[in-house]
């Protein structure tokens, strides 16, 4: 048993009257002891559920991120200057179980315009047990599971799309996944993952969220840690995919600038509609392939809406209308299909990992 961890556990687990928040340094120490498995399983489980009930403060999240930076592997920084900053997308690692992700199309679109993008996640994970993004990419012919951090560095440099795969790139954090199932709730690390950058260089960060207090904490963490730009998205199931059946709520915070709130109304641009349900992996891959081939459909509308919104948010287009028009053109003229083929060739030929359909 770790005596030092027990003292930290007592602080967060003593209840609303006598419990105390951890300092940033204490939160970093607690996370280190958990990642190194120096705390016992009983201590780790107790800490995770107590911290969830208490809710992590922004200072605690900053300390946890400090520990992740110290112990987690990171994709090496690009050596050549890019037209746009590297952008990391923070999405729930337990993925989506109700709505169909259109996010791979968005990443292909951004990469086709010179925006280097990084997505992160793992395998099927509690508590949602949604369809992992790594499985979706495999369905599109890209096996990210076998790639090293150096492989992803090369992919990011040459194709603009990298994937940080938790089991391979951060095994210490992967060992905490069973706790999610055993406690039956998302632990504070699930919040941490939405705002952690697995890139060793400076990057913009786009984080999905569901509940407004989470976004508030993200904004406070921005003030505590070096970040160039933070974009928060109230997306489908906490992802970065914008819904079509409600207003898109976006927050933008840049260094030395005030927080900005953007409300994107799909009905104002002719894109209101139902959000496509996730029926099966096979159906989703088929629908994504149809979008890539430029065929019409409900997922096509979602792809254009999301693609246009991100072209606007990333500063590629001056306004949302222009972003939507350019997104539609890029998808329907084959640019997305070209980017996917480029990615497939790089992975299967130059990195030798093979593809899996």
TrEMBL record:
Keywords: Amino-acid biosynthesis, Aromatic amino acid biosynthesis, Glycosyltransferase, Transferase. Gene3D superfamilies: Nucleoside phosphorylase/phosphoribosyltransferase catalytic domain, Transferase, Pyrimidine Nucleoside Phosphorylase, Chain C. GO terms for biological process: L-tryptophan biosynthetic process. One of its GO terms (cellular component) is cytosol. Residues 108-335 form the Glycosyl transferase family domain. SUPFAM superfamilies: Nucleoside phosphorylase/phosphoribosyltransferase catalytic domain, Nucleoside phosphorylase/phosphoribosyltransferase N-terminal domain. Residues 6-71 form the Glycosyl transferase family 3 N-terminal domain. It holds the Pfam family Glycos_transf_3. InterPro entries: Anthranilate_Pribosyl_Tfrase (IPR005940), Glycosyl_Trfase_fam3 (IPR000312), Glycosyl_Trfase_fam3_N_dom (IPR017459), Glycosyl_Trfase_fam3_N_dom_sf (IPR036320), Nuc_phospho_transferase (IPR035902). The keyword Disulfide bond does not apply. One of its GO terms (molecular function) is anthranilate phosphoribosyltransferase activity. This is Anthranilate phosphoribosyltransferase family protein.
């Amino acid at each position: 048993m770790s005596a030092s961890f027990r003292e930290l556990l007592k602080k967060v687990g003593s209840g609303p009257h006598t419990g105390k928040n951890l300092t940033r340094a204490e939160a970093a120490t607690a996370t280190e002891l958990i990642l190194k498995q120096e705390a016992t399983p009983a201590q780790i489980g107790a800490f995770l559920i107590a911290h969830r009930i208490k809710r992590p403060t922004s200072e605690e999240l900053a300390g946890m991120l400090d520990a992740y930076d110290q112990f987690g592997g990171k994709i090496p920084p690009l050596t050549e200057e890019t037209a746009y900053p590297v952008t990391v997308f923070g999405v729930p690692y337990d993925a989506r179980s109700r709505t169909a992700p259109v996010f791979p199309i968005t990443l292909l679109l951004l990469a086709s315009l010179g925006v280097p993008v990084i997505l992160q996640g793992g395998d099927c994970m509690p508590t949602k047990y949604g369809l992992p993004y790594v499985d979706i990419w495999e369905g599109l012919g890209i096996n990210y599971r076998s790639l090293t951090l150096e492989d992803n560095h090369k992919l990011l440099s040459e194709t603009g799309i990298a994937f940080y795969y938790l089991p391979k790139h951060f095994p210490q954090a992967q060992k905490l996944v069973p706790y999610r199932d055993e406690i039956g709730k998302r632990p504070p690390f699930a919040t941490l993952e939405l705002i952690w950058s697995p890139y060793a260089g400076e990057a913009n960060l786009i984080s999905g969220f569901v509940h407004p207090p989470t976004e508030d904490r993200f904004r406070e963490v921005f003030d505590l840690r070096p970040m160039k730009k933070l974009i928060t998205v109230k997306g489908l199931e906490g992802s970065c995919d914008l819904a079509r059946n409600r207003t898109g709520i976006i927050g933008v915070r840049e260094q030395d600038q005030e927080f900005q709130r953007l409300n994107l109304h799909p009905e104002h641009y002719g894109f209101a509609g139902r959000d496509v349900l996730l029926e099966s992996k096979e159906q989703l891959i088929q629908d994504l392939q149809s979008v890539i081939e430029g065929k019409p459909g409900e997922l096509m509308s979602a792809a254009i809406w999301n693609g246009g919104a991100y072209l606007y948010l990333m500063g590629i287009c001056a306004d949302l209308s222009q972003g939507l028009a350019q997104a539609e053109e890029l998808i329907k003229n084959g640019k997305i299909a070209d980017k996917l083929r480029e990615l497939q060739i790089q992975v299967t030929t130059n990195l030798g990992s093979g593809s899996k359909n």
